[in-house]
Amino acid sequence: MPSVSLEQLLAAGAHFGHLTRRWDPKMKEYIFMQKNGIHIIDLKKTQINLDKALEAVRQVVSEGYEVLFVGTKIQAKEIIESEAKRCGQFFVAHRWLGGMLTNFSTIKKSIKHYKNLVKMGTDGTYEKISKKERLMIDREKEKLFAVLGGIEEMKRLPGLVFVVDTKKEHIAVKEARKMNIPVIAMLDTNADPTIIDYPIPANDDAAKSISLITSKIADVIIEARQKVKESKALEEAVEQEKQGALKVERASEKKTETKAKKDTRKPVKTEETKSDVSAESSSKKDKKEEVKIEETTDNKENKES
Known about the structure:
Layout: H1 6-11, E1 16-19, E2 31-35, E3 38-41, H2 43-62, E4 67-70, H3 74-86, E5 90-92, H4 104-120, H5 131-148, E6 160-164, H6 170-178, E7 183-187, E8 198-201, H7 207-265, H8 271-304
Parallel strand pairs: 4-5, 4-6, 6-7, 7-8
Antiparallel strand pairs: 1-3, 2-3
């Protein structure tokens, strides 16, 4: 069953493309017809491609990677930010900084600088500088937050990039391709689907259409993260159970070893030992009898004399 119905797509206006004169011929396979000079997108193809994209998202998240949401156009920016936050992912909703993916080491330095500026407001630095300097720091902080706020906790490159409007976000797409990061994108009839790993043909200008597709991406991420969490909890429980069983086994082995050591300390009466004791006892008895016989003989001799 498709993740989204045709009725939902129609209600969101996902089928409306651009004017026919602005189309990209490479989108031909995703166009159903043209009406009043506007291309109409084949929503069945939208369903199929969306499901493929969602499966890719599920796979990436289950492997422990993050998804970067990108959409800076007016219709998309608020949706991109709210849905990314809802599913705990990173986002770029203001402006794409060149090198965000291809020069990530430099971006990390910028993020560190931004965090230091934020720290100045709480560590007492503001009290030691002038009002003018504080104002300059605040302005720089605001500018950095606008472009880095959505990725300030991103420690590594994402496993997947989701883009709304590849024409506007062409730099983001180019950088992702260069870094071999798969791209999922909403494509209108004026876009090139051949440069996208998972193209989703849909109206990328209508807020309802953007919201519908983006929310489905976010829903799958939440679901996949929950499964990962449950899987980890199960693995930890199994590991704890193994450790517990191992402790019991070691304790049992130690107890057996201790008992064996105690047993080795006790002398064991073997057949040889018993034989030696018997022979010694017999020897002592013979000696006593010999002594008695000698004494008797001596007494007799004394009487006769």
